Amino acid sequence: METPRHPLPPFTMETALQKVQIAEDAWNTKDPEKVALAYTIDTEWRNRTDFINGREEVKAFLTQKWQKELHYKLKKELWGFKENRMAVRFEYEWQDHSGQWFRSYGNELWEFDENGYMQKRYASINDLAIEESDRTL
């Protein structure tokens, strides 16, 4: 059994906000190994139109993501929570290999197991091309 990842569900406003900040901080490291540790071994994701199953696929997905999305910077915001589930709004900015900047907007639905690992993550994301001067993150 894996060590619990605090804070644990059921969440309070304080612990839900902590969990969102922990996720934001981890994703901003752009370290697939570190980020993947927050998910169950058999985690289920839908990210845009990709379906990802298991921690190993998460690592591969994130490695490819951050090879494509240069200068990645993310901000997450809690929108709601109940027991072991959360709704989170996010935006992030990144640059592609041609030099074009983007701001990606999205919503995530999260479900955690009793040990605080995310077992389900469903993300809907849209990308907007922006000028470098329009960056806010």
UniProtKB/TrEMBL annotation:
Pfam families: DUF1348
Cross-referenced InterPro entries: DUF1348 (IPR009783), NTF2-like_dom_sf (IPR032710)
Highest taxon listed in the record's lineage: Bacteria
PANTHER family per UniProt: SLL0781 PROTEIN
Protein name, per record: Nuclear transport factor 2 family protein
